Amino acid sequence: MSEPLAKLQSTAPGVHTAADYLSFAQPRLTAETWHYLEGGSGSGMAMQANRHALDAARIITRPLADVRGGSTKLKLFGQQFEHPLLLAPIAYQRLFHHQGEAASAMAANAQCGQMVVSSLASQTLESIIEAAGQALWFQLYWQGDRQRTLQLAKRAIAAGYGAILFTVDAPVKQAVMQLPEDVSAVNLEQPALPLPALHAGQSSVFDGWMVQAPDWDDLAWLRDEISLPLLVKGVLHADDAEKIINAGCDGLVVSNHGGRVLDGVPGSLEMLPKIVQRVSAKATILFDSGIRNGQDAFKALALGADAVMIGRPYIWGLAASGALGVAHVIRLMRDELEMTMALAGTKDLPAIRAGKCIFK
Amino acid sequence: MSEPLAKLQSTAPGVHTAADYLSFAQPRLTAETWHYLEGGSGSGMAMQANRHALDAARIITRPLADVRGGSTKLKLFGQQFEHPLLLAPIAYQRLFHHQGEAASAMAANAQCGQMVVSSLASQTLESIIEAAGQALWFQLYWQGDRQRTLQLAKRAIAAGYGAILFTVDAPVKQAVMQLPEDVSAVNLEQPALPLPALHAGQSSVFDGWMVQAPDWDDLAWLRDEISLPLLVKGVLHADDAEKIINAGCDGLVVSNHGGRVLDGVPGSLEMLPKIVQRVSAKATILFDSGIRNGQDAFKALALGADAVMIGRPYIWGLAASGALGVAHVIRLMRDELEMTMALAGTKDLPAIRAGKCIFK
Amino acid sequence: MSEPLAKLQSTAPGVHTAADYLSFAQPRLTAETWHYLEGGSGSGMAMQANRHALDAARIITRPLADVRGGSTKLKLFGQQFEHPLLLAPIAYQRLFHHQGEAASAMAANAQCGQMVVSSLASQTLESIIEAAGQALWFQLYWQGDRQRTLQLAKRAIAAGYGAILFTVDAPVKQAVMQLPEDVSAVNLEQPALPLPALHAGQSSVFDGWMVQAPDWDDLAWLRDEISLPLLVKGVLHADDAEKIINAGCDGLVVSNHGGRVLDGVPGSLEMLPKIVQRVSAKATILFDSGIRNGQDAFKALALGADAVMIGRPYIWGLAASGALGVAHVIRLMRDELEMTMALAGTKDLPAIRAGKCIFK
Amino acid sequence: MSEPLAKLQSTAPGVHTAADYLSFAQPRLTAETWHYLEGGSGSGMAMQANRHALDAARIITRPLADVRGGSTKLKLFGQQFEHPLLLAPIAYQRLFHHQGEAASAMAANAQCGQMVVSSLASQTLESIIEAAGQALWFQLYWQGDRQRTLQLAKRAIAAGYGAILFTVDAPVKQAVMQLPEDVSAVNLEQPALPLPALHAGQSSVFDGWMVQAPDWDDLAWLRDEISLPLLVKGVLHADDAEKIINAGCDGLVVSNHGGRVLDGVPGSLEMLPKIVQRVSAKATILFDSGIRNGQDAFKALALGADAVMIGRPYIWGLAASGALGVAHVIRLMRDELEMTMALAGTKDLPAIRAGKCIFK
Hints:
- The structure is a homotetramer.
- The first copy, chain A, has one domain (42-171, 211-359): TIM Barrel, CATH 3.20.20.
- Helices cover 41% and strands 12% of the residues of chain A.
- Chain A is built from 14 helices and 12 strands.
- In chain A, the strands form 3 sheets. The first copy, chain A, has an 8-stranded parallel β-sheet with strand order 4-11-10-9-8-7-6-5. Chain A has a two-stranded antiparallel sheet with strand order 1-12. A two-stranded antiparallel sheet of chain A has the order 2-3.
- In chain A, helix 10 (238-246) links the parallel strand 8 and strand 9.
- The model of chain A has no long low-confidence stretch (mean pLDDT 94).
- Chains A and B meet through helix 8, helix 9, strand 8 and helix 10 of A and strand 1 and helix 13 of B.
């Protein structure tokens, strides 16, 4: 299957941008699933903040540059990719298509990119990597204690995953939709670690959920246990970014979790420049939150990200057309990124950041 | 009744935030009462300014902090509270539920918080405190002259109220709706002090209403007369804040009266930082105006308030479900506040203010 | 008739603010007349700019000030007024009510204020001043040449008008509606000075209308000819303000002509502070454009205007109820201004400007 | 035909501004053609940015200036024009009216202005200039290589075109509508230069289209080949502007291509001041993008442009009434520009730029 996925140029009539898949995806999903996918926390201000921050950064075109032979290639942790558009970890992908995470992973690798598989994947880590035929990256949620967390990470490493993205910005389990019977987090130990019993007057937050959340000591411990590249996902404050890199991590993901955790956070792009200024010399910085097209990706790269993650858009492709849809979404965004780079006179990723082409 | 109110976690189906009570409350009230509750002065710009100011302050999440055992506890004037969410003084609560202020007070104390009972309460001060089973705070309106004002304050003190919040930003009686026959300000001396007769050419404002308004001398006099904690409610200018504290008051409430007095005032949150900078070292600063959820409360606390007041939202709960509704609103906001604190890496109220987690 | 006009408190049921007259006025006027009254130039951006500028200035309330005995009194050019709310010159008032300018003038004087009668009044200058029973002010349009202009000014002076406001921001005759047969500019010499014949290639603007527009030399000449107080109306640039005062004028009106001349001008309030800073020590500064209520008036006064002009709102009152409507609009705005002053702790007009109560 | 076009004052009832032609034009065009004309790239942000930038610049009126005898005259490259409103190059004008580019060119010259004829004109360059009866300017697209490009430019020069505007901001052929059989780019060599064949892994952007895009070396070469005035169209960055002038070009056009190329670019007017500051001493600067009326033109001139280009509005006139419509659009905008100049106290184009009449 990787052959058509790799050569894919255009499969769906009337689809010219990733956003065009939205209208194909929605009718294929239940209302509840659609809401689960599209919703942000609270009144949606955090999602809007992502959009506004991306719209506010504008691109100054730079004609007449010689960009022949340019490319979107990059190397991350020794691995060569054709483009900087990673698939973000999204849970329970069998909600959206019966092929689930396997389809997304096949598409990512066929398009010479990378997927980060969620701890909450609805297929086994082993079967996903087998479908992909290549190493993938793994998104790790803290499992309530060190032993369970390490067990999950080691399973991923044993299965051949090549980097660990440790998500820290959603320590409290979010309310999710009622999952169908045949969709579950099949890679997690069951039952989950029970929450501590609360005494009268104790807080379900501070004495309950947060007891099972990771802290800086846990991060240091995890760093020691894991020899693969380790990135922390969910960073918005430059002080935290610096502390993470000082803890020996290889990188981080600037993200507000797609506006799904706390309403009222800033747009992720607003926080990117300070973090870049502080740690980009010594760390790999990924950007996640609100990327909808190649121009958005260009903006994040221009402001200092090494690569970006796309989230909901590839799920639109998955829901609409399975692996082919995901591959097409990646291809469309890459084409837009290339076109934007050409118009901005930047022939490779370092040139994007070096170019003086962002106007705010 | 305090047992179920205290243990309350969730009573109403479909209610996940305080705002969800709005749609339960509205059909239970007459259109006139609803308009009286929800309306702001003029074209509503002051209410919008409150909302915009709160939305403009955004919260940077700070993961990986150890917040185990955290809490929202605080001590105000020697009294211990479990959380900083005070019930604001709202008049004529029997308009909204037959249990009136008594229900709100029971809920506040059952949730280990505090209520400020209005001078315009529709039940006797004594009966409200009896229903609550604990000390409450009293909101004092100037009664046109010193004698009547002191008489009202002394009645509250005699009934066991533990602090006086003296409201100064609404010196002119606002046009209110036509009250039903069985709802009135039962604690005020009747008839009210008559307005001075006006000579030709005199102003109903400067020579009428404002003759019965308190001034700085009256505040100094009141401070001398009252040994309880005395706070001034309705402060927006830092110069006034300083003058109030220099007059010996214990604190103040930064408030634009929920946007109900003068259209075209700034959002209260815009004025908070300057006031905090000027007087927070020597005074208790409460914040009131526009708080709708726990994130809003967090923002006011982060900008230097010691505690916040909630207004319309608890009346939504009162109208929908009486004391249980009020208790649930408090609980929901406290849960949201705790969750926000956890996500911002702040385990107690001092940490909120110390944390660098507000982005504007 | 001046008795009921002077004592007027409230005549129309449901009318609580000047804006409430709008819905009474509109059905009494033809669509064409209404459009003529309400319309701004172009797409209405200049009118919006006036509104936005006023809304953006917000008032910090200052409680506890002693404002007993306060007032809105002021003296302008030796004449005492009870309030600073002047009626702006509006043309052809018999379009709006059969009593025309006479009704407005009666109302202005009965409310102890002042009206500026337009050069384009639809009643004779003499009859208007007779109806008013007091001196009025006269708005002078340039009549194409000095002789005609002086003749018109001298007629007004002879009729007893006490000040001249020379409008300079509308040198080109605006397209107006087709006037009914019985409404015309009865005070102007007929026929009007013919526009110069244009040669091929000449501009109807530069070689036509503008040949009949006044320039700085004309202003200097007019200043010499007129011994009454002379103000220039339609000033937005501080350099022009300075030049006008240096030319010996007594004051000026900061105005964008209610957004009726050039779309895309700034809101008048945006230009006020610089002009105040430049010339207020030596000149009387009136503010005109967009005032809709007493808070708006307060804002302009706080930013340095000596008095303000109201325009469309008094025409709403005129259309709805003749002189009584105009008087009521003035009274309502004055009440709002007094209330705003009281809430801002300012007991007279100098205190408004001195108070630190504007937040931008 | 040039006689009525030159003397034209007003032909269409109800048309008072160029925008009024829009509603006459739309019903005369197919939906597809209308969408092709009006659409911007992507979600239209770039078009909105043009509008917002123009609206944000506001004009301070400057009364009392003596502007008699003023004019909008200017000289560009030795040629005298009556006004600075050039017709922008727009492709395939026979889509909009059967008279096509010839009609626009006649109108431009009859109104003593200038038209820039597109490389994608739907009539022969020779027939257009013949219809116009005067020299026109020619917009040059790169034709994939030097030989083809030079051949096209030389044909224009031979036909009598007097200046070359070399468009560089749209190197990649935009998706256009399906053209009717009888409309095509008749001046281009057919077939077009084929795109290079791509090897596996090559990019259709970097190894395809951009191989046929011009670069700085090509510009230098073109400058050497062309002795006519040469301007570069599509400049947004001051560094590029400087490089262009240093390459010996005579001027440039600040433009984002009417928002048709890359969504997310800044409004062209936002970029104008920096470019003016950098190169206006040694170059002719034209402004293009979003001009809809005479005030817009005034703003661009005030910010330093020597002349402006109008695009879609003249096509509205063309679609509605052929050459008469185009001539009327030009006349309306010129009248608005003259009126704006008069109100701003500026009697000629140098005065516009020198005047301190823009408020941002």
